[in-house]
Write a structure and sequence with these properties.
- By secondary structure, the chain is mainly β.
- 4% of the residues lie in helices and 40% in strands.
- The chain is built from two helices and 46 strands.
- The strands form eight sheets. Strands 23, 24, 25, 27, 29, 31, 33, 35, 37, 41, 44 and 46 form a twelve-stranded mixed β-sheet that branches. It has a nine-stranded parallel β-sheet with strand order 1-2-4-6-9-12-14-16-17, covered by helices on one side.
- A hairpin with a 2-residue loop joins strand 19 and strand 20.
- The two termini are 37 Å apart.
Length: 598
């Protein structure tokens, strides 16, 4: 393993032996005797059998106001439990009522979300930091997954806030009154990340971050890039210059609708639903109150771990939305979302596990569903799919009011053996997939080429689908299959499966390996910007992957700023897309790039 860079002037490290190294460290158990995990009983149906709306958010939603004593001690208590609990069972949401807080350093570990409860980030100010670093993993930030920060204003103590994260760690609706450092202390390896609807007054320094996507935000400046930095609708973003430096910059985001969020209206909780924007640029909240609508918490079934899928479905059929409080939910049947404009919002990485091979969540072909803020963890019995948006053959026009899938993450293996054939299937037209990480685990427990078998990551059958911030990794065959017309992807990050035992195991007919991103042969219009695929075939480093991307060669199918990377020579790519692009070679971990295709 080469030494990590020693300062911010580095062009970034080679990420050899990254996530496979964790071993026993990753499974560090939570320390006993901290926060109670037991929940009070779920509210019972009324005499008529109706389920209640609203109610208490449970013990793992911890709410602070400026007068709360011992805030720092409580934050430290949660962090001590979650810092290295990568595959643990703890789930926490740390919520701050509007006001000003002084002298805090909220360090975030696994499955921990921190958020303000105002309508604007500036309603809740922390004179202090919200910190993610990598001391638990010897300064390597490539496994700082599953944590989030939302809807806060920060005045960092030293002028710069540190947010050294990897995948599934969104930074949304944040106002940093200073700079933002995306690298760990010591500038060790890092593999992130995602920012949206945020304002960073100072400079963002990604330093050792391999890739990053920033959407509909404002930055005072941006310094450094390693492989793939993508911006859409970002005021202050660097100019388009891929591949040197590797900046892909779009002036606007074609369609966006920010994630729903919980806030306080006086003493009452509500959920704000931001409106759809077209050709978006900058934050939604910079000119005051954001545009959109809101719902009272009384219109949500406030779910607790232990509730059955039948009860969740009864609440939905009754006309309630779902608020999933932090914890783990076992499902023996799919959660069925049939009603237009339904909201399913998770707090603190609420986790859904299908126990018997069912699909975890199914959405009907209706307008305006919002899925946000939860993790689906595959169960030990193979599920044909884990999340389906629209049934097969869905064809309704949802352009005026699309379904959004935001910060919905999928995992197969890692916390235990899991299996799924296709993780996410998008059948409904105009769906927006805004920040997802679909991950077949390469470390943890229940991991092996056949142990956590998962052939396909995401399959898009619907027309006019937009993906903004698409992270899909390590599937046995195709990571992305796109069969709908007029699809668009802004930013894609991929690693091919590390653990392929030999060349034959990944042979795709006459083609060496399955492309990371495959556009169907019948597609006539498709476009992608800022897409990267990496290989690290550490079981058999002689494996050859023909290309990272495969698509029909026709004028309407266009790609901008593509790259493939061999991590230290563990496997090689022969081409970038189809038969175009130079091969990777040697052990230097230098990307091969294509600026425009065809």
């Amino acid at each position: 393993m080469p030494p990590a860079p020693t300062g911010p002037s580095s062009s970034g490290p080679s990420p050899l032996a990254r996530r496979t190294m964790l071993g026993a460290m990753a499974a560090a158990a939570a320390a006993p005797g901290l926060l109670a995990l037991s929940s009070p009983a779920q509210a019972a149906p009324d005499a008529a059998g109706a389920l209640p709306g609203g109610g208490d958010l449970g013990p793992n939603v911890i709410v602070f106001d400026p007068s709360t004593p011992g805030i720092q001690a409580r934050l430290d208590q949660v962090f001590a439990r979650q810092e290295s609990a990568q595959f643990g069972t703890g789930r926490y949401a740390l919520l701050f009522k509007p006001g000003t807080y002084h002298g805090l350093n909220a360090q975030l570990g696994f499955y921990t979300s921190i958020a303000g409860l105002g309508l604007s980030p500036d309603d809740t100010t922390i004179n202090g930091d919200v910190t993610v670093d990598a001391g638990w993993f010897n300064g390597n930030a490539t496994q700082n997954f599953w944590r989030s920060a939302e809807n806060l204003a920060l005045n960092p103590v030293n002028g710069t806030n540190r947010w050294a994260v990897a995948q599934a760690a969104p930074f949304r609706r944040m106002h940093v009154r200073g700079g933002l450092n995306l690298a760990p202390n010591g500038y060790g390896w890092a593999s992130g990340g995602y920012i949206a609807d945020s304002k960073i007054d100072g400079t963002v320094g990604p330093y050792s971050q391999q890739q990053w996507y920033t959407r509909d935000s404002s930055v005072g400046g941006w310094t450094n890039a390693v492989w793939n930095m993508v911006f859409s609708g970002v005021q202050g973003a660097p100019a388009q210059s891929f591949p040197n430096p590797p900046y892909t910059t779009l002036d606007t985001t074609p369609v966006s609708r920010e994630k729903p969020f919980l806030y306080l209206d006086g003493n009452n909780y509500r959920v704000f639903l931001p409106e759809k924007r077209t050709n978006a640029r900058g934050t939604t909240w910079g000119n005051g109150t954001p545009r959109g609508t809101s719902l009272p918490l009384t219109q949500f079934y406030v779910a607790r771990p232990g509730v059955t899928a039948a009860t969740l479905n009864a609440a939905l059929e009754q006309g309630l939305h779902l608020l999933l409080t932090p914890g783990i939910y076992h499902l023996d049947q799919p959660v069925q979302v049939r009603r237009a404009n339904t909201v399913v919002l998770g707090l603190g990485y609420a986790t859904l596990i299908p126990d018997n091979g069912v699909t975890a969540v199914r959405v009907a072909d209706v307008d305006g569903v919002r899925l946000a803020g939860f993790l689906i963890d595959a169960g030990p019995v193979n599920s044909p799919t884990l999340l389906e948006v629209g049934p097969a053959g869905a064809s309704a026009d949802h352009s005026a009011n699309p379904t959004t899938v935001q910060d919905v993450f999928i995992r197969i293996g890692g916390a235990g053996a899991g299996r799924a054939t296709t993780s996410m299937v998008i059948n409904s037209r105009h769906t927006i997939v805004d920040h997802t990480w679909i991950w077949r685990a390469d470390h943890g427990t229940g991991v092996g080429w056949e142990t956590n078998r998962a052939d396909y990551g995401i399959r898009v059958n619907g027309d006019d689908v937009l993906a903004t911030g698409l992270f899909v990794e390590h599937f046995n065959k195709y990571d992305v299959q796109w069969y709908g017309q007029r699809g668009r992807t802004i930013f894609f990050q991929n690693e091919k499966a590390y653990d392929a035992p030999n060349q034959a195991a990944i042979q795709n007919g006459s083609v060496k390996g399955y492309a990371a991103y495959k556009v169907g042969d019948s597609v006539t219009t498709h476009e992608g910007w800022g897409l990267g695929s990496y290989c690290y075939y550490n079981v058999d480093p002689t494996i050859v992957q023909h290309h990272g991307f495969a698509a029909p060669n026709r004028p309407g199918v266009r790609f901008h700023d593509l790259l493939v990377v061999s991590l230290g020579g563990n496997g090689q790519y022969e081409r970038v897309i189809n038969d175009t692009g130079s091969p990777t070679s040697g052990t230097s971990t230098v990307p091969s790039t294509v600026v425009s295709y065809p």
